[in-house]
Structure formats: C-alpha cells, structure tokens
Amino acid sequence: MKVTVFGAAGAVTGSCHLVEAAGRRILLDCGMIQGSKIEEAKNALPFDFDVKTIDAVILSHAHIDHCGRLPVLAQYGYHGPIYTHRASADLLPVMLEDAASLAEMDAERRNRFHKDGHNHHKPLFTRHDVGQVVRQLERLDYRNPKILFPGLTVTLQDAGHILGSASVRIQAEEGGVTRTLVFSGDIGPLDTPILADPDPFQQADLVLMESTYGGRLHRDRAATVQEMGEIFDAAWKAGGNILIPAFAVGRSQELLYWFAKHFEDWNLGRWRIFMDSPMASKVIEVYDRHDELFDDDAKAMFHGKPHPFRLPNLKYTTDVEDSKAINEHNGGCIIIAGSGMCNGGRIRHHLRHNLGSAKNHILFVGYQSVGTLGRLLVDGIDSIKLFGDEIKIKAHRHTIGGLSAHTDQAGLLEWYGAFSLHPAIALVHGEDDARKACALALKMRFDVDASIPPYAETLTV
Hints:
The protein is α/β, with parallel strands linked by helices.
C-alpha cells in the first residue's frame, strides 16, 4: 500500500491524499485550497495525478477544505463513487452549492470589467457540477465496514469535528497480507458541544494524522466561556455591536448552543442576535435531521428551553436586503456571519460598517489561514481596504481559541495513544511549525519518529 500526499502538506487547507492498494487507486478527500489569491488560484490547476485512474473517493467530512474540489474532479472525468458518512452527504450539497454560487457571482463581476471578450473569467465550478457530485455520493454509517473492492475495505469512525466527520480506516489485502492505513480526518476536542467525542481506532500500520494545532494547547473551555460573557457585557455597556465570523458548519451551531446554555448568565435577551448566513440556516436543517448523532447533553438541551436554534431574539437572515438592514443598527447586535476567515461572504460588509468604531468588538472563533483577511486582522493589521474604502481599525479584536473544532497537541497525542504498538505516523494538515512541534511531542511521549511529508511525497505502508 502506498500513500501520496497531494494536499495539506505544510498547510491546513486543500486536503487530498492518493492511496494505491490491492490494485486500486483511492482518493482521500479532495479539498479546496484557501488563503491568499495566489494560493486559491491553484484550485483551477490540473491535478497532479491521472483523474481517470481513480477508482473511488472517500470523503472525511463536508468542510470545503476537504470537499471543495470534488466538482473539479468531476469536470476532469471522475464519475465514480464518493463514499462518506450519511450526515456529510446531506451537508455536502449545501456547502458546494454555496461555493458554486459565490464562484459564479465572482466570475460575472470580473467579466463586467472585460466586455471586449478578453480575459474571460469562468467560475471554478457551477451548480451543475455540484449536481453531478451529489449523484455520485454513497452513504456510510460509523463502525460499519464497507467492502469497496475485493481485498479493500473501508470503515468510518466518529472524529468529533463536525456533524458526520469521520476518521477513515482502509484495510487492503495483498498476497495474503493485510495492511491498514488510518487517516484521522480532522479531530475534534473532547466534550465539544452537540457532538460525540472522537472515536479512535486501535490498530494501524500507518497513521496519517492532522496537526492543525500540533504546536499549542487550547485555553480551558470554561475560561473561554467566561471570557465571551465578559466581552458581551463590555460591548453592551459601550453601546456597540459584536461581529463573529463563523464557519456555517460546526462553529455557528456551537455558538448557538453556548448562547442557549448561558442565555440568562450573559443577559442575551437584551441583544438582537442575527445569524446572517443562508448556508448556516440550511445546515441547521441538516442538524435537525441527524440529532441521533448528538451527545447526551445536547439531546437533553435540545428538548429544553431555550432551544439553541430557536432563541427568542434570534433572526435568520437569508435575504440580501435583510442582511443590509442589519447595518442600520449602531449597537446592540450580535452578528454571526460567514465566511469564517473573512475572505468572502456577508461578514465583509459588516466589517466595513463596524471596524472603524472602538465601541465594537470582533470575535474570531476559528482557525484563520495565512493570507486571509481574518489572519491579517488577528495578526494586528492597522487598516484595511474594503469595497473601495480605507478603514482605520479601532474595533476591539478577540481570538477565542477555546472554541476550536480541532483538538490541540494534547488531544492529538491522546488520539494517537489509543493505537497499540505505536504505529508509524505521518503528519499532514498543519503548518510546518505545528507539524514539527507535534513530531517532537510524539517523539518525547511515544518514542516514535513522525514523518513530515512534503507535497507529492509517497509513503509506503
């Protein structure tokens, strides 16, 4: 068995790995690269492998950095099965249709400036391409092995990252010998609201593990929750707004969970709360259909009051005019909007109206990739240009690390520690500093030499 790393090598987006085993070629994830314009331009480049030789795709979960190039894969001729958990299969069209819509609008906007027929821009993919991908989906359940081909079996287990997220085990029998590869997918922290805890495998010959936060420890969740309450109180006293760039899948739902749990503690009834994301509204419908995957605390909470997704002062805004109207309020609003890294979407309009005032607060509750507007704001940039306006940033900025959907270094080591005999391990889906720190921690604790593969390196199982 061989594994070639074709994405998320020294980065946290663009997850894509090619597995060759039992005479077959299997693709693990096919994610979009996110970051600077230069990095994102790579999404339109041809794949560095022959798409027509791929026999199957296994998708770990529905975040765009893991699934976003599936329509491009289909454009290049892949029309075979895409295996994923059934909840991910329900989330996937929501994610991809939104990305297609944004790409189509961006191409149309660019072409308005090139009416002479030159420099014609086309979207990376269209909603038609998304429809093709949806028709290829094959739904799986956790802990239910699926024989893909003779001698090749795949099993999914809960990764605790977002609804339907999975770690993937591929077992291949060749010449009477069975080799086992485990791909972690993205691993969530223990006790993440709504979701069950990660369910690790116990045996492998090679582990391909994410390392997003391989070099740090998260802040205690209780301290994080207390900090959020203090920020809300300070913003209310100042008469300001609170902006929260949030991913539509996972983070937005977790925020609403905390809002419901601390509705009285944080005096949230005095605020106008906006979920300004058409995609997040659709995602919540998927969560409602898969409450069997919730942990026990969430099941109890979702049968009480206030219901996290139906807070009395929560408004879902899907219409563009309703979204614009939010910015008529100069204070007293909590605005949750995408994109989570501020590279697009409605959050940019809200930033334009709120960054210039010291009474407002911006809460960053998720990972910000290098080159994104979110990362620039977190790193302390003094001013930015949005929609032609130069804005001197006066709003307060807060990085709320304790709400991450990725586990930290301690969690990664605990997840790996569930394997018997400490198998070989390769670190992906992390910036190089994080991968090196995680490799050192693995060496110190388990005396294992973790590999840090560069792009296109092939590993042998």
